[in-house]
């Protein structure tokens, strides 16, 4: 028998998660259970289950006795996340350039190609994450993939903050096309140089935006 309450809570969680990843909520924004319930037309206990699920997965944070807030990042957090991304993705790039099944990576870029400029940012961010996940997966290292998975929520939340950097999704897609072409050529040095520039640009933008948001809070 399907538990209807759990099913509704899952639907609420999915809707909230998509809104978070689309950048509809600013970092530190309060998400009260009562407001979520009223906004989505569900019972407060159902909203509470959905919010708690997002807290458990790292999308939201809640201090004792306070309402949940959208996860906030410091400049140091951004630097640390990108440090780990480089360790994982650079090793994956080296492995792929030595020889790997490019099929899943090509397929991920093909899905990215289907995202138009007028679609929501969450769809574009999902396509971006899908590409990078496919590259790490192509390295055929279960431990490398698990390590990437541990920072995937943080990467996705930072992607929401990256939204103003790309006025057109096609610009982001073209960057990934260039990355794929370097992998196909098997030129690890060129691929790593492009990867570094891609991640450096994102980190610089996010560091600046994070600092600006922290300044507005004080």
Task: Supply database-style keywords.
218 residues, globular, disordered N terminus, mainly alpha, single chain
Can you characterise this structure?
The chain has 218 residues and is mostly helical. Strands 1-3-2 form a 3-stranded antiparallel β-sheet. It has 10 helices and 3 strands, in the order H-E-H-H-E-E-H-H-H-H-H-H-H. A hairpin with a 6-residue loop joins strand 2 and strand 3. The chain has helices spanning 4-21, 33-40, 44-56, 75-98, 103-113, 121-138, 142-150, 152-161, 169-185, 188-217, and strands at residues 30-31, 60-61, 68-70. Residues 1-5 have low confidence and may be disordered. The radius of gyration is 19 Å and the shape is globular.
What is this structure's SSE topology?
Elements: H1 4-21, E1 30-31, H2 33-40, H3 44-56, E2 60-61, E3 68-70, H4 75-98, H5 103-113, H6 121-138, H7 142-150, H8 152-161, H9 169-185, H10 188-217
Antiparallel strand pairs: 1-3, 2-3
Helix pairs in contact: 1-3, 2-3, 4-6, 4-7, 4-10, 5-6, 5-9, 6-8, 6-9, 9-10
């Amino acid at each position: 028998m399907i538990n209807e309450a759990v099913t509704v809570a899952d639907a609420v969680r999915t809707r909230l998660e998509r809104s978070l990843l689309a950048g509809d909520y600013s970092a530190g924004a309060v998400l009260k259970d009562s407001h979520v319930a009223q906004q989505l037309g569900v019972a407060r206990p159902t909203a509470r289950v959905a919010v708690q699920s997002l807290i458990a997965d790292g999308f939201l944070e809640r201090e004792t006795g306070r309402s949940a807030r959208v996860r906030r990042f410091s400049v140091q957090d951004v630097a640390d996340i990108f440090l780990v991304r480089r360790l994982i993705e650079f090793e994956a790039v080296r492995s792929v350039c030595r020889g790997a099944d490019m099929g899943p990576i090509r397929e991920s870029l093909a899905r990215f190609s289907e995202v138009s400029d007028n679609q929501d940012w969450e769809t574009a961010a999902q396509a971006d994450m899908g590409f990078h996940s496919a590259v790490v997966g192509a390295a055929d290292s279960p431990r490398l993939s698990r390590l990437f998975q541990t920072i995937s929520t943080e990467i996705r939340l930072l992607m929401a903050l990256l939204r103003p950097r790309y006025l057109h999704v096609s610009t982001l897609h073209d960057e990934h096309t260039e990355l794929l072409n370097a992998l196909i050529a098997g030129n690890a040095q060129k691929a790593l140089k492009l990867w570094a520039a891609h991640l450096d640009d994102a980190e610089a933008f996010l560091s600046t935006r994070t600092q600006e948001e922290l300044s507005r809070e004080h």
